[in-house]
Amino acid sequence: MPFPHPTPHHCITHLTKRERFPTKPNSSSSSELDSESESGGSVRRRRWPEPFLGFFLRLSPAKPINALSSLRFFIFLCGVSGAPTPELPDPKAADVYDFFLQWIGKGLLVLHGPKWYEHRKLLTPGFHYDVLKPYVAVFNNSTHAMLDKWEEKAREDKSFDIFCDVGHMALDSLMKCTFGKGNSGLSHRDNSYYLAVSDLTLLMQQRIESFQYHNDFIYWLTPHSRRFLRACQAAHDHTDQVIRERKAALQDEKEQEKIQNRRHLDFLDILLGARDESGIKLSDAELRAEVDTFMFEGHDTTTSGISWFLYCMALYPEHQSRCREEVCEILGDRDSFQWDDLGKMTYLTMCIKESLRLYPPVPQVYRQLSKPVNFVDGRSLPAGSLISLHIYALHRNSSVWPDSEVFDPLRFTPENVATRHPFAFMPFSAGPRNCIGQQFAMNEMKVVTALCLLRFEFALDPLQPPIKMPQLILRSKNGIHLRLKPLHLGSGK
Ligand code: HEM
What we know:
This protein is mainly α. It has helices at residues 36-39, 71-78, 94-97, 101-104, 113-123, 129-132, 135-155, 163-178, 188-209, 216-219, 223-251, 253-261, 267-273, 284-315, 317-331, 339-342, 346-358, 391-395, 414-418, 438-455, and strands spanning 160-161, 364-368, 373-374, 380-381, 386-390, 456-460, 468-471, 473-476, 481-486. The protein has a 3-stranded antiparallel beta sheet. A two-stranded antiparallel sheet has the order 2-5. A hairpin with a 5-residue loop joins strand 3 and strand 4. Helix 8 crosses helix 14 (284-315). It binds protoporphyrin IX containing FE. It comes from Panthera leo (Lion). Keywords: Endoplasmic reticulum, Heme, Iron, Membrane, Metal-binding, Monooxygenase, Oxidoreductase.
């Protein structure tokens, strides 16, 4: 299925020549997933070498339509600056991100300008590593519950679609970690939310891809828009309930005391306690927008990442065995992973990164240029241009990644990373508008995938290969069908 053509204010010039990808500048010391330093505000100005990037507008790298852009251009979009208050990055392209408004409102993903900066600063402490530490236990528990379910399914000795179960598990973990949900599993309402998100992402993708649907007047007359509004309502019912429950809990003195005693507040505590300089709280609309944004971004992306990783493991059994050996040794005779274990999962982490390269959960992002960009060869893009940054295509560009279709985790050894530009790999985007939840996501992916590998051997179903499909996140049109063989390794259960 083709990726959408953006509807540019100024059409991006189609270039045929791919330019050589530069090596990493000497001044850079950040590792490929350590881009958080760039998000906090103290960002250094760097001078970047010549253009690179291949931008394709289709999932198949064999069919490049539109090859364009430069690294300098990407830095420009990220608004990297040496000034004490960072220059604000280019805004998200309203033509695309405005479609989100009805659903997730003006939360962190869609906001721009000083309001975005304010909210980003406010919410960043919610992802401090002291906050993230106790989440490891939550990931363990939610994963065990999913694996118990898989144990039963595996008995039938046929392949099954893992995507939906991974999605429920990821939503359960997110709600427990960031929204203070108790120990129970997913309720009927949570399940309706999960289904609503699946509908919303499908309808949003369809709207992005259908030129006539970009017109509000036309769109709101269609049956698709009515389905969209119904799904929005279902999603909002769920998030409203989450906010109501937490507000009610805060009336309880004991609960208040517990929060005051915590060294670090969780995401929802931060939102509910936030005040601006004049002491004004977030409005109900602002609060709901952030909850809707994080509820969606925090589970659908990791679901995609974990599911495609397990698919890669089934596709490459030799890497699957090596990861299993590593995590088996780390776990020993315990049944759950702890925070300190995460740093020891070297091979597994490289495999996760390699699967994020080939199957980036967010395949494409969009920006609108606030200033013109002039390329070294004299070509330029005018201010106002709508730009699509095709992460999927960048990750499979053979001038950036030799033998780009080959699954090779060793691309992510420290030595190999050092020879590449830090922005060659950007599943979490880059610069100040990078993913605020990337550390949360990496931790979750490590715990979940390690436990999965300990309980089962994963194999392909040759009759049902996945068909990649962008649906805001990278999904498979026909699900991800795998065969699971229980391992009874004695640990991990
Ligand atoms: C494997 C998992 C994940 C991937 C690949 C991913 C990827 C991304 C990407 C590419 C962006 C930039 C989007 C854009 O510019 O349109 C982004 C932004 C964002 N992500 Fe993630 N994400 C993941 C997990 C998470 C999690 C777990 C959370 C929250 C708990 C989260 C919250 C956000 C938010 C709020 C933004 C907007 C940040 C801003 O603009 O300041 N993400 N993510």
